[in-house]
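Example record

The entry below shows one chain as it appears in the dataset: sequence first, then structure tokens.
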Amino acid sequence: MLNSFRVRLLLLLAALLMLTLSVQYYVNLRSVRSNTNFIIEQQQAIMAGVSRWSEQSFQRAVSGSDAVSRHSSHYSATRLTG
């Protein structure tokens, strides 16, 4: 029965199919791990940026609102003269 060309061809194709599926599974697994690490790095970068921005905003608010009033008075003066 294994002497039949069709049976040997069928076994070869089945083995190649299993090999192909195994390689695809492995590549997909590596891709998922890589994407997970990339997403974690992105989340950390976003959180660091938001933290830095909120610290700067807080420092601006604590340092005084005179910077805001200077900006608004400059805007008002340029609108009147400009």
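Notes for this example: The two ends are 97 Å apart (CA to CA). The chain has a mean pLDDT of 83.
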